[in-house]
Amino acid sequence: MLRRNPLRTLVLTGCLAGSGAMAQTLDYGRLEGLFDEPVTMSATGKPERLSETPVTMDVITQDDIRRSGARDLPTLLRRLPGVDVYQGSPGTGEVSMGGFIQVFGSRVMVLLNGRQIYLGSFGAVFWSSLPVELHEIRQIEVIRGPQSALYGFNAVDGVINIITFDPAADAPITEATGRVGNDARRDAAGSITAQLSPGIGVRVTAAGDHAHDEGGLPMPLSAVPSQDPDRKTLSLSLSAALPDGGRAEFEASHSDISERSVVAGTTQFFQARLQTDALKADYAVDSAIGRLGATASYTLYQVPEAFNESLGDFRLHDYTADAQIYDLFKPGPNDSVRLALEGRYESMNVVNFSSGTLSGALAAASAMWEHQFLPGLSMVNAVRYDRFQLGRNSSNLPGDIYTDKDFDRSLQGTSVNSSLIWQAGQDDTLRASFARGLSLPSLLDLGQLALFMPQYGGNYFYGNPTLNPSAVYEERIGWDHRLRDIDALARISLYHEQTMKIIATPALTFPTPPPPACGPANPFACYAVGYQPGTGIVVNGVQAQIDHKSRDGLTWGANYSWESLHPHMAEDASGMVPLLQGSLPVHKVNATLGYGWGDWAADVRLFYSTSTKGIGLAGTPVPQSAIIDTKDVMIVSPHITWSPDEKLSFDLSANNLWPYQDNLVQRNTPTYFLAITARY
Amino acid sequence: MLACLLGPVCGGATTLKDVKIGIHVIDFVTNAPAGRAGIGIVYDPRIKESAEDAQLILDSLSSPALHLAPGLKPQLIDVRDLDDTANLRVVMVADHMKSFYDSLAEFGRRTRTLVLSSDLDCARSGKCTVSVASAPRVEVIVSSQQAQASGIQFSEAFRMMVTEY
Fold first, then answer.
1. How far is CA A323 from CA A65, A152, A293, A488, B74, in A?
2. B121 contacts in A (CB within 8 Å)?
3. What are residue A74's phi and psi, to 5 degrees?
4. Domain count, chain A
5. 3-state secondary structure of B105
6. Distance between CA A40 and CA A111 in Å, rounded?
7. Structure confidence at residue A455 (pLDDT)
8. What is the pLDDT of residue A18?
9. How confident is the model at residue A89 (pLDDT cuts 50, 70, 90)?
10. Omega within 30 of 0 (cis) for the link into A513
11. Residue A248 has pLDDT above 80, yes or no
12. Residue of A nearest to B161 (CA)
C-alpha cells in the first residue's frame, strides 16, 4: 500500500465510486470458436488470439469466474500475479499493478466493454459502482505495463478490460442468483436476455447487494454515522447485426451505492453515496478501407451525500463525454494498421470546498502498426499523442491563490509501445517490449482548492495547475511455455519500470504561519500538490505462473510475484520516501487446488503476501497516525459448487479466512455465503 | 486432405474438430453468394484413403455436435464430376488430392467458390482459398491471391487473425 497524498485523499474520499479506448463490437464467440482460445482486442486494438498478443496479459474467463467462488471483481483480480488489492471496507477495493496502491492516484486503466471506468477527474476506479454482474462477463482481460499508446493518459501500470457476453451473438443469459451470508449479507442479481428479431438481442440485468458493516474502523462505530454497504445496479445491453454487415451496440446503466470505508494511506474514514449513470453506443463495419468503428459514451457521477469527519458534508457532480473513431486495415498480407482519433471532455465540481468547476478537453490521435517478418515473428509499434486543455470556472472562494487564467493551459505528451513477439515452435512464445506511458494528474491534482483544514493550523491546501504529465518507462521480457505432458501453461516475465515524477503534498508538518513565499508563483509553498523532489521511482519485478485448468478432475495453479520498489528521492518531513520504500509487498504467492467430479466441484485458494509499511494507528495512551510495519498476509478462500443440472447450481464460498488483522486499517473481513442460481 | 491435420505429413483420420474449424471459416465470408447451400466434399474414389477421408468428413458434418447451419447441405462429389455440380458454397478437399489442386483452384476462381483444405501447403501455394489445421494448435492460412481471384471477401477481424499469403 502506498500513501500518496493523505490530505488530498481525505478531501476526495467523499466519493465511493470514463471514457473508452476502443469499441468492442467484435464477435468474440465466433472467433473464439474458430481458434479454440480466448480472443482479445485489448492488447493492440486489433483482434488477436491470446497466445499471440505482444504483451503480457491474463484472461479470466467465465469458466474461471464460476469456479472462483468470488462475488466481486477485486477478489478475482487479486489472484493474478503482480496484482495488489487494498480492501478499505467490505464493499470497496483498490486494484493496482506495479506497486502503486493509491487512492485517487490509480495508474491502472479500467474499462467495461471499452468504456472507460477510470474516472480521470478523481484518478480513481470505484469498483463497486461498476454496473456489471459476474455471470454476464465473458472475460476479464488484464494487461501489465504502460499501454498509453493505445489507451491514452493513465494506462501506465496496466489495463483491465471487462468484456460481457453479446446479447445477440452469444448464448442468451437468463438467470437469477440469490446469496446470503454472514454480516447479514443478502445479494440478488438477475439477467433476462431476449431476441427481438434475428440478429438483434437485448439483455437487462438488475442487482442489489446489502450487508451489515461490523466495524473495523479505527474508532467506535458509535462515533460515526452508520453506513452499511449497499449497492443497486440496473443495466441494459443491446446488440444488433445491421443490414450493411455492420454491428451496433448500445449500453445504458445506472448504479447507486452507499459505503463507508477507511481511506488507503490514512486512518480517516469516509462515507458517501455515489450514483453513476452511463450511456454508450458502438458501431463497426467492414468497408473498402478496412474495419471502421465509432464509439460514443457519456458517464455521469454524482455524490448527493457524503461525509468525512474532517470535511463534514460535501457533494460532487462530475461527467465525462467521449467519442472515438478508428480504422483497422491490412495494407498487405504481413501488415496491420490501426488509426484512431479520440475526443473527450470531463468536468467536475466538488460542491462545498472546490474552487469552481474544473474541466479538461482532450484530443488524441494514435497509430498502431503490426508487421510480420516471418511466420511466428512479428513486431508491434504504437504511438499516441494526447493534448489535454485544462480550464476552470471559478467560484471565487476565499483563500484562492489562483485565477482562472492560471488554469488556461494545455498538457500534452506522446506515448509509445514497441513489442517483439516470437513463437518459437508450437509450445513457446517469447516477448520483449518497451513502453513509454504518461500519467496525467487528475483534475483534483490540478485544481483542488479551498480545502480549509482547521485541524492543520487553519491552512488551505491547493491543487497545482502547473503540473505536467509524468512519464513512466518500462522494459519487459516474457516467456510462455506449454507443458503438453501435464496440459499446463507456464509463464514468466521480468520487468523494469521507472516513474519519473511522483505527485505528493510537500509535508505533513505545517509551519505556522504559512510560508511567506506562498502565492501563484510558488504554489508549492502553500501546501499545494507538487512533485516529490528526486529522480523518481524504479520498480523491478518478476512474475511467474503455472496453470492447469480442467472442468473435470484435478485443476491446479500457482503464481509468484517478486517486486522491489526503489524511490530515488530525498527524504523530507512528509514521510513519503520510507513509506514508498516499504509499501510494496516484495513477495506474493497465489495457489489454487481444485477437483471436479460429476455435478460437483471444489476449490481452495491461498494468498500470501509479505509484510509492508502503511499508515495506521500506533502509540499510547492516545493512538496517533503513524507509519507502521504490517504483518504478513495469509488469506484462505474455499469454494464448493453443486450443479444437479444445467439450470440450477448451489455455491458455498468463503473468502478472507485466516485474514490479516493488524492496526493497519485494511478490511480483509472474513465472509461466508451461500448462493443459489437458477438458469432458464 | 483434412486428414493432414496432425502435422506436415499426411495421414490420420479427420476429426470432428478439424471439420468444425473449417465450418467456422465459412462464417467469416462476408459476400457469400445467395442461394448457394452446398458443401461439396471433393474426393477421388479411385484412391482408398481419399474416399475414406471424404466419408469421415461427411460423417462429421452430419454430427449433431457440429451444429451445422440448417441451410448448408453436405454432399460427396467425385472430383471428375465437379464441373457438373452447381450451387456449391464451399468445396472441402479430402485427403490425397494434391494432383487435382490446379483444377480445384481453377474451379474455385471460375465458380467463385471457397476451396477449403487441411493441407496448409495448398493455401500457401495459392491453390486453395483457405487451409486449416487444428493440432497441435489451430492454424488458418488464407491465400489472398486465390480469394481475390475467386471474388471472396473475408471480414476484416478474421483477416487480422489469420496468416495471409
1. 31, 13, 11, 41, 46
2. none
3. -55, -35
4. 1
5. helix
6. 13
7. 45
8. 34
9. low
10. yes
11. yes
12. A48
- DSSP 8-state code for residue A263: P
By CB atoms closer than 10 A (0-12, 13-18, 19+), residue A622 is: exposed
Q: What angle do CA A458, A461, A464 make, to 5 degrees?
A: 160
Higher-scoring residue by pLDDT: A589, A565: A589
What is the percent of chain A where pLDDT is above 70? 78
Residue scoring higher pLDDT (A394 or B84): B84
Domains and CATH numbers, chain B: 2-164 (3.40.50.2300)
Question: Does residue A67 sit at the B interface (CB-CB below 8 Å)?
Answer: no
Is residue A247 situated within a structural domain?
yes
**A10: which 3 cell numbers?**
481525505
Helix H or strand E encompassing A87: strand A83-89
Is the Cβ–Cβ distance between A531 and A50 less than 8 Å?
no
A539 burial via Cβ count (<10 Å: 0-12, 13-18, 19+) = buried
A336: closest CA of chain B, how far (Å): 7
CA neighbor of A121 nearest in space, from A352, A467, A447: A447
What distance in Å separates the CA atoms of residue A504 and residue A3, rounded to the nearest whole number? 9
Question: Each residue of A121-174: pLDDT tens digit?
Answer: 778 888 889 999 999 999 999 999 999 999 998 899 999 999 999 999 999 999
Question: What is each CA distance from A166 to A45, A238, A292, B12, in whole angstroms?
Answer: 19, 8, 19, 37
Read off the CATH number of the domain in which A325 is found. 2.40.170.20
Q: Is B135 on the interface with A (CB under 8 A)?
A: no
In a domain, A460, yes or no: yes
> Phi, psi at residue A377, to the nearest 5°?
-120, 115
Smallest CA-to-CA distance from A666 within A637, A628, A636 is with: A628
Residue of B31, B121, B160 for testing the chain A interface, max A β-carbons within 10 Å: B160
Burial of A33: CB neighbours in 10 Å, binned 0-12, 13-18, 19+:
middle
Q: Are B156 and A329 inside 8 Å of each other by CB?
A: yes
Q: Is A391 in contact with A446 (CB distance < 8 Å)?
A: no
Domain around A313? 6-679
| Whether A515 contacts A526, CB under 8 Å | yes
Please tell me the distance from the alpha carbon of residue A190 to that of residue A211, in angstroms, as a whole number. 18
Calpha distance B91→B150 (Å, rounded): 13
pLDDT band at A355 (very low <50, low <70, confident <90, very high): low
